Predict the structure.
Amino acid sequence: MNNSGAIVYEQLTNGLSGQTQVRLPMLSKGMYFIRIVGKNTESKTVMIE
């Protein structure tokens, strides 16, 4: 987790379908602000149920 409170993960690959695959550790339930760092840096919020 970085200073801004975002959880930063390293982008592994960009799949043939265009979806970004991200290596995620075991996370508890809740809302997470995920920042994908790679060729195309993007931020997204994910809900883990």
In short: Confidence is low (pLDDT under 50) at residues 11-18. The beta strands are 7-14, 20-22, 30-37, 42-48. The radius of gyration is 11 Å.
